[in-house]
Automatic annotation (TrEMBL), chain A:
This is VWA domain-containing protein. The chain crosses the membrane at residues 73-92. The lineage of its organism: Bacteria, Pseudomonadati, Pseudomonadota, Alphaproteobacteria, Rhodobacterales. InterPro entries: CLCR, Uncharacterised_YfbK_N, VWF_A, YfbK_C. Residues 290-468 form the VWFA domain. The keyword Metal-binding does not apply. Keywords: Membrane, Transmembrane, Transmembrane helix. Signal peptide: none annotated.
UniProtKB/TrEMBL annotation, chain B:
This is RNA polymerase sigma factor. InterPro entries: RNA_pol_sigma-70-like, RNA_pol_sigma-70_dom, RNA_pol_sigma70_r2, RNA_pol_sigma70_r4. It comes from Roseobacter insulae. It comes from the Bacteria. Residues 23-88, 129-170 form the RNA polymerase sigma-70 region domain.
Length: 647, 180
């Protein structure tokens, strides 16, 4: 053997560490568990390794963009750093701070009031009139089991990875302990089955929050099943984008669509899906937007998951801006400075150039930065325009006003003057989540945590637009079932959103808001008359029952009420539902799988023998194009839950 | 006498849990070692090892004795490592493992680190394809034919790659002499 090769062999042998015994035992246990599961299942649902065709195109697009974004940086930084920033896009842990407060400003406030009205004994995290974070934000480490079971296109970044797989049980419970004890979740007993002949009307408020899903994800990735009360099924279902048709008619804020299909877990019942698609942000119709990026360029931002990811994220956001929007960039660190004067959003070259020119260094000293950002925002604002400062930081909130109360009131005062504030957190170890939340809430904005470029896509493109432009307030749904066609029904989820029948027409009763592009899905499990799946029998004496209209083909009549922003009186949308069932499309099947998953996590008793494996199979078959990989991630979470539930 | 790999694998494929456990136990070190040498990063190796062990639970039923179990196992490991690299969208992550370490070690600049430093420059300076080839032929003492079978290329390709690896190592040695 050649000398070089010998040296290489010796060095390789020396460098290779011994695997730890704990890790070995844990891996063996996991493998055996999977082995058992594989034996029990004839058709194990497997995630294909390759992303779906659409996703592939999507990723390629991103890659191009990142390449473009990174080229000048690569020249400026060492090649290793450039490589690291490239890796950050796929590689960062999917840390769960994304359950930012429900964004639209008056929404959370009013929704909570409605919720309080409707269930006095419920644990609401805090009370009006403060804008409210409905579920606490949970900062948790990524558990390694998630990586192992995952086919996701992200994995924790090497240097900051917590080797969770090597944690002892004690360590894990220590990590979970304080979180579990301080968490409070808003929930209520699940809706039971209602006999249509006794009560044919069901009323609820819509809910566009998705926080529950994030909490569930963080619990599962941490290696424990979420507490049942943390599971709000409607928020799980609504986390995912569906392909609903938008409103056609001019002036309608959203379009409802209803379809009926067979229930995966019960052949004797059907699912009735009500889908609402908020009007998509029409770039020519929404008010021009002025954005001031206030970027922390202190030395601590010099890490691939901070400044480089931030630059990519903002670059991404530019694609969803309209030509008449304007962008300015201010940095704070050492000396605050205007990096980019207000520039039309379609001058991408200038904006991207300014972003790429940013580099981290210096200490944080930012009051001047914040004040400068606001004053620039004020000069940009013209009649009818929306202005927002977007503060991006890893937690160095030394933006000058040292008294937090003074800072909050400063931000609130600016909000009243018309400039809002959103806060984006990057990186780990220094993040002050509570400060982020407080500032954003005072600024009428949202706080979000960006750990991957795909989270940036979700927060900055998909959700920020919804949060910025509410299109319908107090959206209520009322469904009247025809007892001649439907013997029983059950609303899945929306426990904290139920309304009294008379609330529907009462415009004084608050309900949820829909923002531009938001989607809402509600599922009813219904039992057709004559189905063997009916749980109740006709009453012998039949007194006081609603008989319905046997001549009608309609199984239900759906009514929606909403107020246009600024309006005090509501509009009504109505929609009859006939008994024709359809073959469920992928969206319908996926929503059903998630509904089943949620019920399994809650411990519902409506699923019979249908379990995690069935949910996994159904969801894995219904991923559709899944351009964002959310559905693939959900399948991974289901598998984790399956494994954990077998413990 | 020890039960052979093939026998264990046949039993595992037929659903024997204990046989499967024994198989994993027996080859755990190998899996970890190869994963480490492919990734150049302990934590990546740990994640990969776990993923591979779980994957084997599902894949073992597909082994029908068509190849030597060890060859098949190497192939599973290599595929998992490659999948991970693909998942990381670019091969940047793999380079990151080695490159990052290289940076850290350069900063440390201690005598003790010097020997390892050489390894990180040696491995980190190779393209992923060459690095994988070196990890199998040098690290695992496999013949060029065996490595070729695992990586799905011809023996000749492996031989060519190894000559490239040697060239790289020689260049490195020359550079060290020049620097030193």
């Amino acid at each position: 053997m050649d000398n070089e090769i010998k040296t290489l062999k010796r060095a390789l042998d020396q460098a290779t560490p011994t695997p730890s015994a704990t890790k070995r035992a844990r891996d063996l246990e996991l493998a055996l568990k999977t082995f058992n599961a594989a034996q029990g299942s004839t058709d194990p649902a497997r995630l294909p390794q390759d992303p779906a065709p659409n996703a592939r195109g999507f990723l390629r697009g991103f890659r191009n963009m990142i390449t473009r974004l990174n080229t000048p940086m690569a020249l400026a930084a060492t090649s290793s750093i450039a490589v690291a920033s490239l890796a950050a896009f796929v590689v960062l842990p999917n840390l769960d701070l994304s359950n930012a407060p429900p964004a639209p400003i008056p929404a959370s406030e009013t929704r909570n009031r409605a919720a309080v009205d409707n269930a006095a004994d419920r644990s609401i995290v805090s009370a009006p009139p403060e804008p409210v974070v409905e579920a606490p934000v949970v900062i948790e480490e990524q558990a390694a089991t998630f990586d192992a079971l995952s086919n996701l296109k992200r994995a924790p970044l090497a240097f900051e990875r917590a080797p969770a797989s090597m944690r002892t049980g004690d360590e894990i419970s220590r990590l979970q302990g304080p979180v579990a004890s301080s968490e409070r979740f808003a929930n209520d007993v699940a809706h039971g089955v209602t006999v249509t002949a006794e009560n044919s009307v069901s009323t609820f408020s819509i809910d566009v929050d998705t926080a529950s899903y994030s909490v569930i994800r963080s619990s599962l990735t941490q290696g424990s099943l979420p507490p049942a009360e943390a599971v709000r099924i409607e928020e799980m279902i609504n986390y995912f984008p569906y392909d609903y048709a938008g409103p056609e008619r001019d002036g309608a804020a959203f379009a409802p669509s209803v379809s009926v299909f067979e229930t995966p877990w019960n052949s004797g019942t059907q699912l009735m899906r009500i889908g609402l698609q908020g009007e998509l942000p029409m770039r020519d119709r929404r008010p021009p937007l002025n954005l001031v990026f206030l970027i922390d360029t202190s030395g601590s931002m010099n890490s691939p998951d901070k400044l480089p990811l931030l630059i990519q994220s903002f670059g991404l956001m530019l694609t969803s801006l309209a030509p008449e929007d304007e962008v300015a960039i201010v940095t704070y660190a050492g000396a605050a400075g205007e990096v980019l004067a207000p520039t039309p959003a379609n001058d991408r070259a200038a904006i991207l150039g300014a972003l790429q020119g940013l580099s981290a260094g210096g200490s944080t000293a930012g009051q001047a930065g914040l004040q400068q950002a606001y004053s620039i925002a004020e000069t940009m604002t013209e009649e009818g325009e929306v202005s927002r400062v977007i503060l991006a930081t890893d937690g160095d909130f030394n933006i000058g006003i040292s008294d937090p109360e003074a800072l909050k009131s400063y931000i609130a005062q600016k909000r009243d003057a018309g400039t809002y504030l959103s806060v984006l957190g990057f990186g780990r170890g220094n993040l002050k989540d509570s400060v982020m939340q407080a500032l954003a809430q005072n600024g009428n904005g949202n706080a979000a945590y960006i750990d991957t470029l795909s989270e940036a896509q979700k927060v900055l493109n998909d959700e920020l637009s919804g949060a910025l432009f509410p299109i319908a307030n107090d959206v209520k749904v009322q469904v009247e079932f025809n007892p001649a066609q439907v013997s029983e029904y059950r609303l899945i989820g929306y426990e904290t959103r139920r309304l009294a029948r008379t609330d529907f027409n009462n415009d004084a009763v608050d309900a949820g808001e829909i923002g531009a592009g938001h989607q809402v899905t509600a599922l009813y499990e219904i039992t057709p008359v004559g189905s063997a799946a009916a749980l109740s029998e006709p009453l012998r004496y039949g007194g006081g029952q609603i008989t319905g209209d046997p001549a009608s083909d309609e199984i239900a009549f759906v009514k929606l009420r909403y107020k246009a922003p600024g309006s005090q009186s509501s509009r009504l949308l109505e929609l009859p539902v006939t008994k024709d069932t359809v073959t469920p499309d992928t969206d319908a099947r996926f929503a059903a799988a998630i509904a089943g998953f949620g019920q399994l996590l809650r411990g519902g008793d409506h699923l019979g023998q249908w379990g995690y494996q069935e949910a996994i199979d159904l969801a894995a078959r219904s991923r559709g194009s899944d351009a964002f990989g959310y559905r693939a991630e959900a399948v991974t979470l289901m598998r984790l839950a399956q494994t954990l539930s077998e413990k | 006498m020890q039960v052979s790999d093939a026998e264990l694998a046949h039993q595992a494929a037929a659903g024997d849990r204990a046989a499967f456990g024994a198989l994993i136990h027996r080859h755990y070190d190998l899996i970890f070692r190869v994963a480490f040498r492919f990734s150049g990063h302990r934590q990546d190796a740990e994640d990969l090892t776990q993923e591979i062990c779980i994957g084997l639970a599902r894949k073992i039923a597909q082994w029908h004795g068509q190849a030597q179990l060890k060859t098949w196992l190497y192939r599973v490991i290599v595929n998992a490592c490659h999948d991970k690299r693909r998942r990381d969208a670019t091969q940047a992550k793999a380079a990151l493992g080695w490159g990052e370490r290289e940076l850290a070690l350069r900063q440390a600049a201690s005598e003790e680190a010097a020997a390892q430093d050489w390894l990180w420059s040696a491995m980190g300076g190779l393209s992923p394809v060459l690095r994988d080839t070196a990890a199998l032929t040098v690290g695992e003492d496999l013949t060029h034919a065996q490595a070729g079978e695992i990586l799905g290329v011809s023996e000749g390709t492996i031989s060519w790659r190894m000559s490239e690896v040697k060239k790289h190592l020689r260049d490195l040695a020359q550079k060290e002499t020049a620097d030193g």
